[in-house]
Design goal:
Number of helices of chain A: 25
CATH topology of the largest domain in chain A: Beta-lactamase
Shape of chain A: elongated
Number of domains of chain A: 2
Structural class of chain A: alpha+beta
Order of helices and strands of chain B: HHHHEEEHHHHHHHHHH
Number of strands of chain B: 3
CATH superfamily of the largest domain in chain A: DD-peptidase/beta-lactamase superfamily
Strand content of chain A: 15-25%
Shape of chain B: globular
Strand order of the largest sheet of chain B: 1-2-3
CATH class of the largest domain in chain A: Alpha Beta
Distance between the termini of chain B: 7 Å
Strand content of chain B: under 5%
Helix content of chain B: 55-70%
Oligomer: heterodimer
Number of strands of chain A: 23
Largest interface: A-B, 43 and 48 residues
Radius of gyration of chain A: 35 Å
């Protein structure tokens, strides 16, 4: 024992040093913890809050779209998406093969999506498959215990109940483009769906509603544990269109195998009752992401299904322009409606021979007869008297050459030629012989169906032109509060009642008198007036485009009609591409539409007709409950 | 050896024992907090069983004469190396490491026992070193004794466990009386070896050191653990978020929170106060043990206490520094507190040995 005590001195000294070292080390650590826990406490506290609290968007249910009678056209349906939570997966490869097996998916495709998703933080779930069927959902749910890494989320998907019906009026949804996100002031985020074209695009804000937000507490897997608070979404407004599905269906049926467009509107308000552009496409394709085959079929179709022919394609109006010129000449007092002109079937102007469509000629015709018979020689003479600038003034007065202001995007203006236009824009002087062509709706004059519909509404309403629109009313799905559209008007040149009666009488005769160019389309029990038109397909470009298909060189057929003549309630403009003569190709649809609108029975007797519009029904049960989305 | 000794001369140090028990109890409490409602549920009671095993081992160590253990320390040492060799060839890989022996549903790390055995052999080495200056021959022996298990464990490979042997070398050098010149040489040699060792490290080990030096470089990989642990510690603030109310731990943002990161759970839920409590208990334990070392009956006892204390101290410092990103994540648990049967049982065995040295201070065996 003594032996041991001998050298304790230096050992004890070292232990004392070590004792200080131990104390110092623990004190230093305590200081370090003090720094992290006291000095930097707030910083780390915020980080921990960010960790656990995640803002999750509550997508507002998009408003339904209904026709004027309350029939649902566009609704929402649940869509099931399969997500993979990486942190829950023990063996990612095994998970991939499992799910590919279970749902019959392509393993490489699944792996590709997983690899792509790896760029995101681990808590962000990776979408593996969209639009699962109910059996697939059940299959995944049944294995939820063994495979907690897979989760099904429900979201709302747009459903266009009638497929391609009224597609061009409705538009479609697709992911917002970067430009759209920017121009909307960043209310949208990448990946958000947004209305494109049609009323989906035009009334995006109204339909979309306001998204809500939930602040949820999540665990490290990103799984929701509980909810901290929530700001409810306000659902989008239900939108009633002025469209009458009954008429729309009749028009679409007629265009099943034709290319062209139909615009039917209420001349008093501009409400569009039917709007067809054929060929059409199915907006549901976009909702579930267009497949590349579908996309190619849309793009490669020479008839351009995506284009809205009623507002985006410009054509020569043909003889449909004649009543407007007659109206204008009467308003300017440049024609005596009773004065007769002799039509021998042809006439010479400025050293060129112009033909009437009737080889033998119409003989002596006054203004009314000229409209009824669509006598070209009469209008050659009228055109010559007016001159191109007055024709331009009349056309512009009826809104040609300008967009109609319809509530659809990408509307074309058309073209109204004038001497100034020839000088400034065409950079080739105006030949007087061109005026003769324009007088029967050929030449550089270009119009859209929508413009004709609006102008015709203006013509029969003594110059009061309504702005065409699809919006009928909107309704808040929660309160039922409605917002009605207020018609807007522009005024064409005025015309006295007696003189207008002459023009309308001529148009009535077109349909109702023997010899009228659309006599075959008489509507039993309803006084329809109208005007046929034939637009020649001319120019080398058209020939090249037509190629071997000679039918593409056939004339386009127009018919612009209204009825009942005494108190018009509907204007119909039918355009059939390469349809031949308006009488045969276009007018029968107008007849069918009037028959559909009034049944085959007599129209309401005497003006003013009772309001037949059905009041917009409150849409109880239409709005889906707000739903949750995945974080 | 157990009987025939005056009762008054036998003293059990209740302060040291109390600190150890308090820390183990804290551990069970927070293992429960960290695992309730997870697939690890039930580990708290399992830890309780291991503490019981540890206490039995401790009792045995107190009652058994440590001088006897020192005498046979070489045999014990060799006996504990055998399973390490066995593991290298037949070990079952768990978490990529061959360091576990499975007995029934319990797993045991033989390396933990080897730590105790090595401490015993080191103490026995210095038992007969009277000189106040370290002899070169002793230095070589020390290196061989500690180096052998380190190498075997390095091959498993479990870096955290390898490192826990280092304090034995330090204890031998420092308390054995290595002169200043020797320290300089050793520091130089270590520096060179560290450079060479870099090439021997596994990729994941390099990655860990890399993320330690720059934690933000890999926020979702290795850096994730450090980052989440720092957030847990920092967000605890002064008094914590409350028991079972830590968002980082309860929502599982903390990795392996019931084992290596248990201190972060305490720091988050009991705040700075909880951390100080843990540090204070450890400080009391270590300082008390060093007092015991000073008064030990013989040199072997002194070195045994110092070696065991040194290893424990080293683990505490590295683990606590790891929580706040001051040390790389090496997989070193917090002694007595972290979940881990072998660790807690052998730590109690070590504490038993320390108490045994004290217990026999005046004994004449």
């Amino acid at each position: 024992m003594l032996r041991i005590r001998e050298d304790r001195q230096s050992l004890v000294r070292r232990i004392e040093i070590a004792r200080v070292g131990v104390g110092a080390a623990l004190s230093l650590l305590a200081v370090a913890y003090w720094f992290v826990q006291i000095v930097r406490s707030e910083y780390y506290f915020n980080l921990s809050e960010n960790n656990r609290i995640r803002a999750v968007k509550i997508t507002a249910p998009r408003g339904y779209v209904l026709d004027r009678n309350g029939a649902v056209i566009v609704e929402n349906e649940p869509a099931y998406t399969l997500h993979l939570y990486r942190r829950e997966a023990r063996d990612l490869d095994a998970s991939i093969t499992f799910i590919a097996d279970l749902l019959g998916l392509n393993v490489d495709q699944v792996r590709y999506r997983v690899d792509r998703g790896r760029r995101d933080p681990e808590f962000v779930p990776i979408a593996i498959a969209e639009n699962l069927g109910l059996e697939e959902v059940a299959a995944v749910e049944a294995r939820a215990v063994e495979h907690p890494e897979f989760a099904i989320t429900v979201s709302q998907r747009r459903r266009y109940k009638h497929g391609g019906s009224a597609a061009h009026a409705l538009g479609y949804l697709s992911e917002a483009t970067p430009e759209q996100i920017k121009s909307a002031g960043n209310i949208y985020r990448v990946g958000d769906w947004i209305g494109q074209k049609g009323i989906e695009g035009a009334y995006e804000r109204l339909l979309a509603g306001t998204n809500g937000e939930r602040r949820v507490i999540v665990d490290s897997h990103g799984r929701e544990v509980s909810e901290a608070n929530r700001l409810e979404a306000s659902p989008g407004q239900n939108l009633f269109l002025s469209v009458d599905l009954k008429l729309q269906e009749v028009a679409e049926e007629y265009f099943r195998d034709k290319v062209g467009s139909v615009v039917a509107l209420d001349p008093e308000t501009g409400e569009i009752l039917a709007l067809v552009s054929s060929p059409s496409y199915d907006p549901n394709w976009f909702t579930r992401r267009v497949t590349s085959a579908e996309w190619t079929s849309l793009l490669e179709n020479p008839d351009r299904p995506l284009q809205n022919r009623a507002i985006q394609n410009m054509y020569s109006p043909g003889s449909v322009i004649k009543p407007f010129l007659a109206y204008g000449a009467l308003a300017m007092d440049l024609v005596d409606p009773n004065a007769k002109i002799f039509c021998p079937g042809h006439a010479e102007f400025y050293g060129r021979e112009f033909h009437c469509h009737k080889k033998g000629g119409h003989g002596l015709v006054n203004l009314r007869d000229a409209i009824k018979l669509s006598c070209d020689v009469y209008f050659y003479n009228l055109g010559k008297r007016l001159g191109i600038d007055r024709i331009s003034e009349i056309a512009s007065s009826f809104g040609f050459g300008q967009p109609t202001g319809v509530d659809l995007a990408f509307e074309k203006s058309g073209l109204v030629p004038s001497e100034e236009w020839a000088r400034v824009k065409r950079k080739a002087r105006w030949y007087p012989s061109e005026t003769i062509s324009v007088a029967i709706g050929q030449g550089p004059l270009l119009v859209t169906s929508m413009q004709i519909a609006r102008a015709l509404a203006g013509l029969i309403e003594e110059g009061k032109m309504p702005t065409p629109h699809l919006f009928y009313s909107s309704q808040d799905p929660r309160t039922g509060a409605q917002l009605r559209y207020k018609p807007e008007f522009r005024h064409a040149m005025a015309l006295s009642d007696e003189k207008l009666a002459i023009v309308k009488s001529g148009m009535w005769a077109v349909v109702n008198e023997a010899g009228g160019t659309a006599f075959g389309s008489r509507v039993n029990g309803l006084e329809m007036g109208g005007k046929t038109g034939t637009a020649q397909v001319v120019g080398r470009e058209a020939v090249v485009r037509a190629g071997a298909d000679k039918s593409k060189l056939q004339d386009h057929a127009w018919f612009a009609g209204f009825g009942p003549v005494d108190h018009p309630r509907m204007v119909v403009v039918v355009f059939v591409e390469n349809g031949g003569h308006g009488n045969l190709a276009a007018a029968p649809l107008a007849k069918a539409l009037f028959e559909a609108k009034y049944g085959t029975a007599k129209p309401p007797a005497g003006p003013p007709a009772p309001q037949t519009r059905a009041a917009a029904r409150p849409a109880t049960g239409i709005a889906p409950a707000s739903h949750r989305e995945t974080p | 050896m157990i009987s025939g000794v005056l009762p008054r001369s036998r003293r059990l140090d209740l302060v040291l024992l109390g600190c150890a028990l308090a820390l183990a109890a804290l551990g069970v409490l927070f293992i429960a907090s960290a695992t309730t409602g997870t697939r690890y549920q039930g580990l708290a009671s399992r830890q309780g069983i291991w503490i019981g095993v540890g206490l039995a081992a401790m009792t045995f160590a107190i009652l058994f004469d440590y001088r006897m253990l020192l005498k046979f320390s070489f045999a014990i040492y060799c006996a504990t190396l055998l399973p390490l060799v066995y593991l290298l060839f037949f070990g079952e890989r768990i978490a990529n490491v061959r360091s576990w022996i499975r007995v029934g549903q319990f797993q045991f790390q033989p390396a933990e026992l080897s730590k105790i055995a090595t401490a015993l052999l080191v103490a026995y080495l210095f038992e007969n070193e009277d000189d106040s200056r370290l002899k070169p021959a002793t230095l070589v022996k020390l290196g061989a004794i500690v180096g052998a298990p380190m190498l075997l464990i390095f091959l498993q490979p479990d870096m955290g466990l390898v490192l826990t042997f280092l304090p034995l070398i330090f204890v031998g050098l420092f308390f054995g009386g290595l002169p200043a010149r020797g320290w300089i040489v050793i520091i130089l040699v270590v520096a060179v070896l560290a450079g060479a060792g870099w090439f021997l490290l596994k990729d994941y080990q390099k990655a860990r050191i890399g993320t330690f030096l720059n934690p933000d470089s890999d926020v979702l990989g290795s850096g994730y653990q450090v980052r989440q642990s720092k957030i847990a510690v920092g967000s605890g603030g002064f008094s914590g978020k409350g028991f079972r109310s830590g968002t980082q731990s309860q929502l599982r943002f903390l990795p392996v929170q019931h084992t290596d990161f248990i201190l972060a759970v305490i720091a988050e839920e009991w705040g700075f106060l909880g951390v100080i409590l843990v540090f204070a208990l450890f400080a009391a334990l270590f300082l008390r043990a060093m007092t015991l070392a000073e008064t030990a009956r013989d040199r072997g006892g002194v070195f045994l206490v110092l070696g065991l204390t040194g290893m424990m101290f080293f683990s505490v410092i590295i683990n606590a520094a790891m929580m706040i990103g001051l040390a790389p994540t090496t997989g070193i648990p917090l002694p007595l507190v972290s979940y881990g049967g072998s660790s807690v049982a052998t730590t109690f065995l070590g504490i038993g040995l320390i108490l045994g040295v004290e217990y026999r201070r005046f004994a004449n065996a």
